[in-house]
Amino acid sequence: MIESTDDALLSVDEVAALLTVSKSTVSRLIARGKFIAAYRIAGVQRWRKSAVIAWLETTQEHTK
Hints:
The chain is α+β, with helices and mostly antiparallel strands. The chain has a single domain (9-62), classed as Multidrug-efflux Transporter Regulator, Chain: A, Domain 2, CATH 1.10.1660. The protein is built from three helices and three strands; from the N terminus they run βααββα. A hairpin with a 2-residue loop joins strand 2 and strand 3. The longest helix is centred in the C-terminal third of the chain and has 14 residues, at 49-62. The two termini are 14 Å apart. 5% of the residues are buried.
């Protein structure tokens, strides 16, 4: 299990890097409703790092 005490807000670039996918893949996941909702701050999407890590762990458990 990955643990994170850092609850930073991540950009789409940072989310893509954390998931090791492209920004286009993140956009496709969002469009298909398969990724967690983002916060909109000044018109820019941001995700909590802890939520992204939790989503990733859940997704990995389902693919085992």
